Amino acid sequence: MKITFGMAFAALLLSCVSAEAQVKNCDYPRFRTAVGQTTDLAMTVRAGKPCRITLGGSLSPISEARILKAASVGKSSAQGTSIVYLAKAGFSGSDRFTWAWAGQDRWGKDQLWSVDVAVNVIP
User: Where is the secretion signal located (predicted)?
Assistant: First the structure.
């Protein structure tokens, strides 16, 4: 069978669409935080799979992450400068929690950079 350009293009397009259709276990956009403001973050997770939010970089020294308001359905925990969220296996729906990075600003004053997370849990 002779493969034409159209057939090759269709196969390439199908493989790209198939890869995009696969949902990750944990997905959230890049985000920035600011002292004195709460950042809103939307996160999608698979039930029963952990989702870790890590510090990508900071202009200020960050000492730890803290849970300010625990998740109501799943479990949210602070581990060093990371946050881990885990929804119960079999759960599908929404959850919410608030956490913060704790550290010092550029003048050496203790500060919190808080994030309110709206979680969409998928099976």
Answer: 1-21
